[in-house]
Hydantoinase B/oxoprolinase family protein (Shinella sumterensis), 659 residues
Amino acid sequence: MKLDPVTLAILGNKLAAVSEEMCLTLQRTGRTLYVKETADFACALAGLDGRFFAYPRSIGVSGFVGLECGPAIAAVGTLEPGDVILTNDPYRSEGLATHLPDLHMIEPYFHNGKIVAYGWCFVHCSDVGGRVPSSISPVNTEIFQEGLRIPPVKLMKKGEMNPDVALFLNANSRTPDANMGDIRAMLAALAAGRRRLEQTISQHGAETVSAAAVDLVTYSAEKARTVLKRVPAGTYSFDDYLDDDAATRLPVRVALSATFADGEVHLDFTGTDPQVSTAMNIPSRGRPHAWLTLRVLALVNTLDPTTPLNVGMLAPVKITAPEGSLVNPQEPAAVGVRHAAAIRVNDVLNGAFGKALPDVMPAASSGTVIPVVMAEPDGHGGRRVQVIEPMIGGTGARKGRDGIDGRDSGISNLANNPVETVEAELGIEITTYALRPNSGGAGQWRGGCGMELTFRVLTDDSNVLGRGLERLLFRPWGSNGGRPGMPGQLILNRGTEREKHLGKIDVLTVNAGDTVTFLTPGAGGWGHPAARDPQAVLQDVANGFVTIEAAASDYGVAIVDGVVDAVKTESLRKGMVASTVVNGQGVERERWDQAFPASVMDGLNRSLVALPGSVRQRRRREIFDAVLAELPEGFPRVAATQTAVNAARQRLEAAAGSL
């Protein structure tokens, strides 16, 4: 049964509205800040194949359209009315869950004794046990350290909560009451979806609604293929780096070749580094996973906003994600900070697509999401665990538009937490929450500014966690002559004699009176900075986005007594040389690529991933230790002589050849 276009459009809107009402129910009844304010959750309707045919556009995490419920549904066997599946295990759910704090629930929706659809929702909960408060640590080495693993099980049986499952949940969390509050909110959301779907069936009939679930996916696939046909055929390659793996000083490479042909795209991640022995791996299970395909959704929806948001948008996408690599790790790899790698995947997709569509795609966004967590003593031997703020930077500039300041919905679409609410929940005083001047990359169109968050700690023996700290070394790249954004920083007690600049942290212990400052990266600029309208630079100075000094040094615009000095500006701009590279990566990345060229890294990583897991990481460390021994301490922040770079590259080539 194929529906007529009018009926399909009506049902498409109705079913999307059902998913959005589920989200609103979840947010309004949720217990924690991360649900009520940050909105780190989502809801959807899945078809009989376990894939989403209706997904909300305007609330919750925007990028999980491509997740699949099928393996988790199959794992529990026969389902009855009132049953609800719960899981958080990335491996046993085949990538539905992507790290342990994300609790996923699935409820079968019955009509006349038969399942007609499934309701799905997830929330990021406060704590599921593990080695550290909030369960996420970048230096965990296997998933067993990250908390309680919940294989697909029935939390609810015929409408009654399974007390054994609830007991395990409560016994393995530092915040059992908060978790159970959010779990009950999830059940309320699933109940809302069940009622609204039944109402839709009563209006249109079960056969029509079931047909809509199939036709909406087919329609989205057709529209996605039409959009992708507009991309010039060819293969476009790009690579980028995580600063390090949080345990060593070795950067972690993400490489991509995107091949467009006849309305389809093949995303090949061959050349990406092997899985790391820390928590940044993405458990995609080799599928066209949400974390590997998000930029495709953004491209399709940008060029055709009428495309229904469902899994059909990914029908034209094929994936090659080598098993044992960062983007398809083998169990029991740790995955808690998988979002850091997912953001870099988003950046390489953006960079590759930008080669095909330079006038459409933006420069790099800030490239980081940092859920800043506080765990403070509760006075009873335990700890209160709350997210202070999911810190982000800005969006990259694109042709004709500046980037957005302090707002980057690149992978998650999270909201900020109100200062008053945070201070009511935790023993801190937020002294600064503001945009970071000069952080956006200079360009004809300016990159979005990063953010500053500074807070004073009011309770001794508190812990601060900032998982996902990135772009402290390798900057967000500029495009088409634009300059890179400013790198991030983490500073303890800034402006005092106890000031200390930190890198990535696991658990930072602080006491009353300490201040903690997070400075997030700015995004990349687009186009030569000397081509920027001087009046736009003046407006940036007036708004506090750019200082007078940076206006002169970065844009060649002289501002005197609040106005543009045309004569001095002309003189300054004569000395500015346009960039000759497509992507302005920053001096650190340029130095790194001289010693570790992409062509050699592609071959090396292909060989490393093919090795047994027990030797893969050891061989990689041995090779990099030998290569970096030729280079100065602090490289690539510190420059190396050409002789040293040549020696390092020769060692790398020899190692790659020996494998």
